[in-house]
Amino acid sequence: MKTANSQLVKQTNTNLVIEKLVELKETSRIELSRITTLNKATVSSIIQVLIDKSIVIELDKKIKTSGRSANAIALNKRAGRILSLDLQTNLIYGVITNLFGEILFEINKPIDNPEFSSYLTSLLETIDELKSNTYDSVYGVIGIGIGVYGILSKTKKIIYTPFSSWKDIELKKIIEDYTGIKTYVENEANISALGENIIYANQKNLVSLNIGIGVGMGIIIDNKLYTGEDGFAGEIGHTILIPNGKECVCGNNGCLEKYISDIAIIQNYYELTNEKVSITEFISRLKSKEVHANKIYQQFIDYLSITINNISQLLNPQTIVINSLIVENKPESISQIKNKLRSKIMNLEVLTTSSFKSKTNVLGLTHVLIQEFLEIDNYKLKS
Question: pTM for this structure?
Fold first, then answer.
């Protein structure tokens, strides 16, 4: 019994040291002893084991701590590599990152045919290309993360994707069988929420609102991802904004997604101008104060404000993070939305844009996989 308790204490202490190394990036044994309250001998013993495993490295520098110099140590960012992929309808975006979450290599692979068999071929080719650019790593590829725009079950089977005919697909098993590497598959909005929860680690309740080709919402309650009874929670894009409004792919009419998604914005612009533009071009015209773009933007802000109000009243999160190219490129959007939120019973502490900017999904995946590899519960990054 004593041996079991001793092992548990040792593992708990090791986890605490690794957690602080992740947060600080580099520090010293003395400083780790101070902030963890573990004695110096315990910290030194833990660090030596981690060095032997190549998880931690000695740096060729000194750090001043409490008036004296000490040898610097750091998490070994070369210990492992992570492949993270964002599966969009017409594009696969993939990155290789190190254990600091820094992007080392990225790829954009256009997709001509979104049907699954053709898409899978492109996905496997992308994974192979990413792996071929993975080098200078002790443990090699430690995980693959895949973000999907669609509804996933509790077991992470892809149940339905609104922009293709994918149904009942065991993508996790397919990729693991092909690569032999542990694979994590999740809804893109949930991934964003997990990534933001690392940044806002001191806040237990958070919502990540993703606006792109669709509209999704990742929900963190008491520091845990909430996915509902069947795994479908967060499909806010398919809540009704306008009764008897525009027809949606889900079968309903007037869904939020038909009014604030990037696709909806582009369609609205086309209806006003008879001109087809990309979302990037729309944003460029918006920044130049083009009248039609501005009109659509103001309606976007109105609808988004209603959405933020509804989320806040329904879930009462401390933080709502908006992931949207339009909001990201028009920082004043946040203040405009706040000015429209007048409810006296709302208690929203933080309304902001993503810390990861437009790479939210893949970097959220990256940090989930790093946390899993390091086997720690409290994974914090400085904002």
Answer: 0.83
